[in-house]
Amino acid sequence: MKFMIVGKASEETEAGVLPSRELVDNMTAFNESLAKAGVLLAAEGLHPSSRGAQIAYSGGRARVVDGPFAEAKELIAGFWLIQVKSREEALEWALRVPVPPGHDGIGLDVWQVYDAQDMPETSLTPETAQRHAALRATLDHPAGP
Question: What's the pTM value of the predicted model, to 2 decimals?
């Protein structure tokens, strides 16, 4: 089962304040423990929303809305993508994420990621399932340059 652990943004992350050396060291140790356990698929921090954009849809048309965006607590500052055996294991890992000092109330979201096996057979034709498997294989083993 794949889960995404999403780190919430704060006023500091939205202002572009970089984490302290201590927090970077703690996050690196946490990421190393995920990798050593063989569950880490990806982990990245995100730039402030002022450097991002959203795509908004109206009347069947898409438009770009440039950041920054209003509610920092609604935004994300980074994520981990992990593959574990259960929701409980995902939560155990999330509970180990280092919390920056003075960031009470800033939290994490833990979301299970859909996989093709999670889709009902009525949602995928055999052709679509085969195409999905081929695409996944290229993502798992990308061709070299």
Answer: 0.81
